[in-house]
């Protein structure tokens, strides 16, 4: 097990039931209180990634005022691709290939109010209703329909109360910012909305805020070139430098792309992830579009047709 070979998320862990995670960033500290009762599987995945220092170096690559702040992919492409959960084979990244890397979101028990933290997914490109190639193992569960939300490592923080926009889509908060929301508000937002995502921008500005430009990173470049791409083209982005849980420090900026002081453990992890990344890229290249059988049932058991009008943190 490890970051490159994640274990399945079951939501069955009980300890700690409630904990606080201090996210250290270039703009200051942000304290997130996580409650397993709100979204047990999301809380389990967050704790696993956070305590393994996965988020160190991760850029806040999408900051849209009066909407959300988005972050989560590792700055190392070979590691980020392990947890890719959106799309089909867009950008050469085939999602959810590594067993245990993706998981189904919990039902919404906590509203998407200001400061609420949740995993981000693209409901318009759900991996389990992708028409190309074979579905990943996570999609084999008979408990969920093809349009059920599958997440990996992407997170967002609500900048305003978005409950009326996101709750009904299935985005389930697992935590709440209890300290440092002023830091979240101050994260660099000059680049605005992401580029090259259909429906994201209207006439050169974000569909969520007319004052926000569409000059942000290309989503798939983040997964294929990581922090090398972001540092070169979007150098002003704030990012995660480390963190702590219950006063136990585990992180630093040691996973910053290009840092010459990485420890041997991180180096070994990266080598393993590089091997996994090569396999993922090879799989994407060889994948061919072919029809596959849909489950044909929704969560309530009724037959359903594929709905192309879905939404997401990106498209809603």
TrEMBL record:
Disordered: annotated span: 293-316
SUPFAM superfamilies: Cyclophilin-like
Superkingdom field: Eukaryota
Sequence intervals crossing the membrane: 264-289
Residue span(s) of domain PPIase cyclophilin-type: 24-187
GO MF annotation terms: peptidyl-prolyl cis-trans isomerase activity
Top-rank EC class of the record's enzyme: isomerase
Keywords, ordered alphabetically: Isomerase, Membrane, Rotamase, Transmembrane, Transmembrane helix
Pfam family, one: Pro_isomerase
Family annotation (InterPro entries): Cyclophilin-like_dom_sf, Cyclophilin-type_PPIase_dom, E_coli_cyclophilin_A-like
EC number: 5.2.1.8
Protein name: peptidylprolyl isomerase
UniProt organism field: Zooxanthella nutricula
